[in-house]
Amino acid sequence: MSSFAGVSTASKKDGSIYYRSSITFRSKHISLGSFPTEEAAHQCYLEAKKILDCTEEISPDGYHKEEFQALPFSKWISLVNFKNNGFYIKTPIYMWSNFFTYYLSPTDILIFDTDDLFYYSNHSIMRRGNHLFVAEYGMQTNIRSRYGIKNFARPGIDFRFVNGDSNDFRYSNIEIFNPYHGVECTKDGTKKTYTAKIHIRGDYLIGNYTTAEEAAVAYNKAADILKERGFEKHFEKNYIEAFTSKRYLEIYEKVSISEKIKNWPPG
Q1: Residue 207 CB: number of other CB atoms within 10 A?
Q2: 185: buried, middle or exposed (CB in 10 Å: 19+, 13-18, 0-12)?
């Protein structure tokens, strides 16, 4: 037992002692973290108590590191959200009226629609450079894939964030131009043309098509032809959700492919 408020002792497998900090608020028992000393665990408790005892609403952007040296920033956000909004969420989420913010740091803030609240309440987001991941089924899943942005997607060509903020993942802010491998859309006035290309030794033109789906099937067909002709590179195929198997085969049979692809390798 510890004589410090909010602190309990625990032991590791090797018998060494460490200290847990926790606090109870609105009948909710909240773990604050583990610490090597009683003093550090108690300081964390005091910092949490300072937040929860405050009589005024605290802004989620009001974090000052010099004031909260023991309490982890992610826990600070969880406590501020609980105090202001009445919901305790383990991940660093702050709820607004029709969206929520996810704090990776005081300055690295993601925005999501409330439809995604349950998912991100149960999945912690990690950042590696410009890539954002969650741990799911023992794997790291790129969160952009949840919004139709493929791994191959190029900003401004295959997709865009409407307001220019790449941290804003609200559905209304994400516009997908092209969901398929090897397909690019070009505009001439109001007319759209979908060009399919495949990378062999440089980009090879497969053909130009009237729909993105037709171009995606053409890409798949070109990949099949190259494989039949002994080309060893693996091409990830397109899945066209809107097509039945029968419709896919109809398009596959009739879609035209560049002679350069059909006659690979060049003589």
Answers
A1: 19
A2: middle
Quote the pTM value: 0.79
Domain-wise residue ranges, the chain: 89-177, 183-262
What distance in Å separates the CA atoms of residue 125 and residue 110, rounded to the nearest whole number?
Answer: 10
Question: pLDDT tens, 24-68?
Answer: 999 999 999 999 999 999 999 999 999 999 999 999 999 988 889
pLDDT band at residue 191 using 50, 70 and 90 as cut-offs: confident
Distance (Å, whole) CA 199 – CA 184: 13
Helix, strand, coil: what percent of the chain each, to 5? 30, 30, 40
Q: How far apart are CA 169 and CA 151, in angstroms?
A: 16
Report yes or no: 80 and 60 within 8 Å, Cβ to Cβ: yes
Q: Taking a C-beta distance cutoff of 8 angstroms, is the pair 102, 112 a contact? A: yes
Q: How far is CA 73 from the centre of its chain?
A: 20
Cis peptide before 265 (omega within 30 of 0): yes
* Nearest Cα residue to 45 out of 26, 31, 27, 63: 31
Q: Does residue 266 surpass a pLDDT of 90?
A: no
Residue 251: both structure tokens together: 């398009």
| DSSP symbol at 155 | B
Structure tokens that stand for 151 in this block: 């791994």
The residues, ordered by sequence, that sit 6+ positions from 5 with a Cβ below 8 Å of its Cβ are 42, 45
Distances (CA, A) of 42 to 19, 30, 38: 9, 14, 6
Region 183-262: CATH code? 3.30.730
Residue type, 263: N
